[in-house]
Amino acid sequence: MTDEDLLLLKRIVATPGVLGGKPRIDGTRVGVSHVLEALAAGDSPDAIVDSLPWVTHEDIKAALLYAAHSAENSAVQAAE
């Protein structure tokens, strides 16, 4: 994992009592799942930023990186 990856991942937090403790973009109530669902529905990163102006392109990258690492960790745990 690169230093840039680590910086991006710091943008994702999970706080009990905020969004039910689900991972979200720091400083917002925008969940990682919301960003991923929007991308999966065909929304472009520009469209997401336009509709959620407090979300940046870097936040979107962070959400994708978080999801990738979560999927990787889930696969490793399932194999054990």
Question: What do you see in this structure?
Answer:
The chain has 80 residues and is mainly alpha-helical. The chain is built from 4 helices and 2 strands. It has helices spanning 3-9, 32-40, 45-51, 57-79, and strands at 12-13, 24-25. It has a two-stranded antiparallel ribbon. It is globular, with a radius of gyration of 13 Å.
Query: What multimeric state do the chains show?
Result: single chain
Query: pLDDT average, as an integer?
Result: 92
Report the major sheet. 2 strands, antiparallel
Give the class from helix and strand content and strand pairing.
mainly alpha
- Portion in beta strands: 5-15%
Q: How many extended strands?
A: 2
Whole-angstrom Rg: 13 Å
Helix content: 55-70%
* SSE succession: HEEHHH
> What are the low-pLDDT stretches, counting only 5+ consecutive residues below 50?
none
Question: Tell me, what's the shape?
Answer: globular
* Distance from first to last alpha carbon: 22 Å
Strand order of the largest sheet: 1-2
Q: How many separate helices? A: 4
